[in-house]
Amino acid sequence: MTIPLLAYSPTCPNSRVDALGARDDEAIIYSADDQFSPTEMDNLINAAYRQIFFHAFRWDRETILESQLRNRQITVRDFIRGLLLSNTFMDSFYNKNSNYRFVEHCVERVLGRRVYGEAEKIAWSAIVMTQGVKGFIDQLLDSEEYIEAFGENIVPYQRRRILPSRVLGEMPSNIRLPRYDSYHRTQLGFPQGIWQETVRRFRSYENQPKAGDPSLFRQMASRLNLRAASPERPSLSQLDIEATVPNRSR
């Protein structure tokens, strides 16, 4: 049964504060209305991937959607919709999280703000439960808040992360809200401390020793086991005193 979105009160103030200047917290705003060259469109598409996926590998990219966006067959909002409904996003965020956490991810990535407490999580989770993920994504992208903030051709971004009255801004969404829930991070072995030692030992290619460098031979020598062989010590019971001690004749 389809139910309407439950009512909830807005409790997060940052996204509701008007910007003081022309730009929102000095954020880089990517809009298809003023991006015309291939390089500018590449920057816009990469910004959309960073906002939705945080990082897209080559096999995660939606090449058909990219082509349609470059040819102006779809809007940025349609491109964002395609990324949210892609196999990569579904596997990385929906399949490995509860509905509440999935809602939190989508609200922060699509609407550019933190959720308004547990009440909004429950309200949107009910939409996911009754209308499915597609119905939930459609309602987010068709909402008045999204249209007013980003319209058809602006890539979503984290709004009002820094306020003039605060020394430190809010932590970026991708850092504050990891992709996997704690259960799946445990299954995958995260966090791992061994990588920190690897980073400390990292040396750039220019600083790596070349052929003939003495440090290479020192490292090779340190890996060799060059223990001196200990002399064999027979027991006293096995010694033949008469045969081993010379007979000193006068």
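The above is record 1. Record 2 follows with the same two-line structure.
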Amino acid sequence: MSVTVERDGSIAILTLGDDENRFSPEWLDTVNSHLTDIENNADALVTAGTGKFYSNGLDLDWLSANSSRGDWYIEAVQRLLARLLTFPRPTVAAVNGHAFGAGAMLAIAHDYRVMRSDRGYYCFPEVDIKIPFTKGMAALVQAKLSPQTAVTAMTTGYRFTGPDAHAAGLVDDTAPDEEVVSAAVSRLQPLLGKDRGTLGAIKTTMYASVTAALRPGDD
């Protein structure tokens, strides 16, 4: 798993792991623990993977072996997505490699995304693996993409390269592999010093309908 946090000044760089970085329950707990510390003790957040993957999303092996806990698991994943969407610090996903399914959703929940320019795919494969989007996940994707890009991303399973993703508005910039994290940090530099309470309140208002869909039990 190897989820770690480093600092670049007051910016926290949360590395999601060193493999496919799938969302096991242990991974979810570890990431949430780090996010609590970052929320309280850093001015901004970058997330990144290492090597070939940013994140391949749901831990389908765990889910298959624990099908009776499926509802609990999806709720936990959606709560993480809602937390990132309304995180009271500026956030950038440094998409260093493949971002698939819930991994792509995690990236899109950030304020901004920088993707590796030469390798890696950004993809929502649900239509091909026969897993329909939940209402919350669909709401998240549709809140961040133009209607036509959402149609392509959600209904075709298209694998966007970095340049494709940039042209479609899935990501805000691209960079060579060795510069993805530094480009994400640079994007955050002008945003430091925002009041946490104000920023969190603004994001909560902006995405109220999405978070309601991601956390239906909170109604």
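The two ends are 33 Å apart (CA to CA).
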